[in-house]
Amino acid sequence: MIQTYEEALSWIHGRLRLGMKPGLARMEWMMERLEHPEKKIKAIHVAGTNGKGSTVSYIRNMLQEAGYTIGTFTSPYIETFNERISVNGTPIPNDEIVSLLQVIKPLAEELEDTELGGPTEFEVITAMALYYFGENPEIDFVIMEVGLGGRLDSTNVINPLVSIITSIGFDHMSILGDTLEEIAGEKAGIIKQGVPVVTAVDQEAAIEVIRNKANETESPFYQSEQDFIILNHHSDNGEVFTLKTQNKMFNNLSITMKGAHQVRNASLAVMTVHLLQSSGIVQLVDSELAAGLTKSKWIGRFEEVLNDPLVILDGAHNPEGIKSLVETIRTHLNNKEIHIIFSALSDKKLNTMISQLEEVAKSLTFTSFDYPRAASTRELYENSSAGENIVTNDSWQEAVESGIDSVSSKENAALVITGSLYFISEVRQFILQESNCNSTIE
Predict the structure, then answer these.
(1) Whole-number Å distance between alpha carbons of 173 and 385
(2) 306 φ, ψ to 5°?
């Protein structure tokens, strides 16, 4: 029997040996044995290549501002494992993780002896989350973020109030498909009969797939720049914009997360909350909606972790993410000399990502980190132009320390550290620990 938090995490992470096993049969088996906690929650389902976490944050904060208690299920984590299952933005405590696993582990072991085989790590965590939220009546709404794809993702056992598809891009192609249409088909797999669909997907081929699925399931379909339109967008310390829906105008909305992509994510969130409001499912006033948007943050997304020198972390882990990062750099750091540290997983489109970074980087440092699929510094370098301003450092800790020292000695310079979210998670912890140690010494 699992007794400690450390034992719980060790057992959960041990499920990684099973790899990814797409399909809902194991989840459906566990939900049946748990008396269907997924049917006890009022859920919002969020899929997409990029923007899921930010969209979750915007929706959570708006509903929270109106007095609701909100559960969220997100991945991967940046600071602590527990943040994957949170209530009002606070990760559940360690003892709850232990208690949940004491319920789920016997089921996992029983399932292992069936023809279905044992559940994966992600299936175990999803089952823990659904059981936790389903057994807590004080939780008003649950926002569930898809882990991978949608159609065969373990979160797809829920029947939500609204389905959201943030964006479509070329990521996880070995699993989701080689074309936009194939990838869109997997994401559109979360669409349920009669459940409204909100999307900011902008490629016509992908939109067509999603729209067809919505028509097939008789689901009301709301498309960005068609059914809800961003107006008067301008950048300040964050972003300010107006959103026009079919029957309402939300004027001068303000967000602190930077970038045009964050405006799109926020617009998705506003449209979703507006639909819930219009149908009488939630009660909130415009001032609560606006305040919730302004308060929203999502760590590791163009996050300023140091101010002097300026150091920014951004988990841009695929070509679309890098494109958004480059656009944000050009908008908000256009007067700065940009130095970049980059590390990524080897199964990404490295040459596409690196060529975009080279467009804005005064210097570009490639590094690596301890993760099974992490690209080597040599692999990154071979996917670059190999210019004079490009260097490698196998120690990411040394690369970060050297990068911070370098921008400290320059006037008007900024260090941007980007790539894999797993990499960003380690770097963030390292920088914050170092800065805390230094401030203590001073």
Answers:
(1) 25
(2) -135, 145
Q: Domains in the chain, start-ordered, CATH in brackets?
A: 5-225+257-272 (3.40.1190.10), 303-441 (3.90.190.20)
What is the Cα–Cα distance from 344 to 363, expressed in whole angstroms?
A: 17
Average pLDDT over residues 280-300: 96
Alpha helices in 113-179 (DSSP H): 121-134, 173-176
Tokens of 184: 């869109």
Asked whether the bond before 309 is cis by omega within 30 degrees of 0, the reply is yes
The mean pLDDT value of the chain amounts to: 94
424 vs 416: CA distance, rounded Å = 11
Instruction: Answer for the pair 232, 241: CB distance below 8 angstroms, yes or no.
Output: yes
Q: Angle of helix 121-134 relative to helix 94-112, nearest 10 degrees?
A: 120
Q: Region 385-399: what's the mean pLDDT?
A: 96
pLDDT digit string, tens, across residues 319-334: 999 999 999 999 999 9
What would the two tokens of residue 307 be?
């101010």
